[in-house]
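Teaching assistant here, posting this on the class forum so everyone can see the example we discussed in section. The complex has two components, and the goal was to see what a joint structure prediction looks like when all of them are supplied at once.
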Amino acid sequence: MSHRSIDPARLLGRIATLGEIGRDAEGRLVRLAASDSERLGRDQFVAWLEEAGLEVAVDHIGNIFGIWNGAGVDGEKPVMIGSHIDTVIDAGIYDGCYGVLAGLEVIETLKDEGFEPSRPIVVAAFTNEEGVRYAPDMMGSLVYSGGLDVAAALETVGTDGTVLGDELARIGYAGSHAPGFMTPHAYVELHIEQGPVLEREGVPVGAVEDLQGISWQKVTIDGDANHAGTTPISMRRDAGYAAARVITFLRDRAKASNTPTVATVGCIAFEPNAINVIPSRATFTVDLRDPEEDRLQKEENALAAFLELLSAEEGVGVSVERLARFEPVKFDQAIVRQIEAAARDRGLACKRMTSGAGHDAQMIARIAPAAMIFVPSHGGISHNPKEFTADTELVAGANILLDVVCRLATGELPR
Amino acid sequence: MSHRSIDPARLLGRIATLGEIGRDAEGRLVRLAASDSERLGRDQFVAWLEEAGLEVAVDHIGNIFGIWNGAGVDGEKPVMIGSHIDTVIDAGIYDGCYGVLAGLEVIETLKDEGFEPSRPIVVAAFTNEEGVRYAPDMMGSLVYSGGLDVAAALETVGTDGTVLGDELARIGYAGSHAPGFMTPHAYVELHIEQGPVLEREGVPVGAVEDLQGISWQKVTIDGDANHAGTTPISMRRDAGYAAARVITFLRDRAKASNTPTVATVGCIAFEPNAINVIPSRATFTVDLRDPEEDRLQKEENALAAFLELLSAEEGVGVSVERLARFEPVKFDQAIVRQIEAAARDRGLACKRMTSGAGHDAQMIARIAPAAMIFVPSHGGISHNPKEFTADTELVAGANILLDVVCRLATGELPR
């Protein structure tokens, strides 16, 4: 039998176009949330939504929605397809954008062929999923699902000292809708794996049934600034050295364990940051992830215990600020089965898996049945210009999304 | 017998006044070389030189000289007293400024009382001793003594991307004299110890007979940026972790040795410096010091060997840039004896010692007999707002300088 298909050229063309928006002077793709460069990406996305004849809605936290209200769907909860279009610094072109543009592509395909859904179909681009400029990450979907008060979120101060609410207003995306104004009947997110599993196993489709828990903390260590030449090692309270010990502790512990636990220190700063002055302060971030809540708590406790030991051994002050904390998430088994069924119908291998990254789907799962579809990431590389998924794999994933959305938009969820 | 004395109120008043020039918004003292705030300090110093009736000269690298040409000294080499007035970030008020202002104080005292030197007496403020904004440190005295070409020095690009020559011209201190235009008969530098030795031993005066060698290197480690959640620890090339291992290696090695070797990592930066991205690049500085050249080389070699091991173990790229390198310096024994004699005459205990910090004196020692006088630093604290030396100790040190300069300016050096 032959299957309906999305328009490969239209989808791939839009991914390429959006991927060129927001390049910096060195050619790096940088569309940090609510920045001038991200505004350009938002404007392009909204233009495409309007070209597709969709109703455009923006909420108070800047989430953008393209709504297709077919005939006779009034009052029905929508099927929502979503992801994000903000990026990290020096990003690839697929993370987030693929899922958003594939969602739009699915709706256009269904509209063009006169498909008659029994409920609205919505594509969503959520604000600040990456969390590079403002913490926590996945903020737009967290606010939308009621997990964070919108007023508090809008007051978030960024790494550059800006206030999110001011920036959203400045770029014209402080919308009029209340977050959560549409409660989805079901939510599906299509995303690159950002890991090496699907490629290594030669499987084109991942049916994501759960998601790692994430713990983000900011650690500040205080010692004494002092002259690098005249202060004997034994008399030093070196905040930089103490920070280095934490970094090696976390990595060596994760490497020694035989669990999927990962620990990363991605940001660091010394004060006064001078060649010939012992650092008086070191500030750094800790990103801990594990698919099991109890193990994640165990890692957090191990870090806390080590910081206490370090404070005693080095005579430094230690303070910890929690930036974000999400428990592992279990997705909707019925939608996961829909994804497996769609892959089977198209003769594609499909693997149930855990997401190692955080995604907006984990937030929307608080208010609606949700699941995710993964496609392979070559070399498992992401958050990097070398991020790559082959065109055929991108198209195959979008067609799986198309099939799943059709089923969700016409019938009840199978139980 | 009674001794002549400098004017305590005038000296202490000027130290306090200069210490208030260049405070930033948080009240921190920050007079980085050739910055707008340092310009204010330079202008105040020049104003004091002119009030004292001294001839003011500035050379191409921005070194400032206040020259007292007494009667009948034409053609004689000057006795030079010097130090610096640039500071680190969040500095104390004594480092450098004390020696410069005491030099001016000594000259004014001798002028006021009709002293008749047989050679000129000069007070010098050398450019960029701290090296925080431009490397290497002690640059002005290095150029003055012919150790670094002035044209090359003026092209130095700072940590903030500025060019030293442009900045000196902008603040009005690109002078007309060729560096080295006066070859000193002798050079004396009065400075706070910046270490704990004199205070701990209760000795008010240090006669500095030698100075530690200094090695400054910039290390860059290259790994792979990748997603912090989906990249197994075993597949990571984490530049930040590799940097942390170098920091702990240097500190643990120095702590384990029973030598005076000190090792400091004062500056660090990660790229892209995002919470959820494994660092692709880590850049940091290494400051190694030892009074014995052979030991200093041994430490440099140990670091090089460890970096090679790390590159192999972690699969990271490592590159090293030499920022500055000075061998240990032996000062002029005759001047050291003069300092001891002056202290004895005033009934003050005096200790021969090694300087743990770099000073302009080590550069001028290349072209003239030179030595230094130290006074106690409470708690050994320096490069820090808590830097402190008691008024009585400051005055005693300045009077030792007065006596030594008198001897040097009237007779030949005793052999």
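For the discussion questions: Residues 213-326 of chain B form a domain with the Alpha-Beta Plaits fold (CATH 3.30.70.360). Chain B has a mean pLDDT of 95. Think about how each of these relates to the inputs above.
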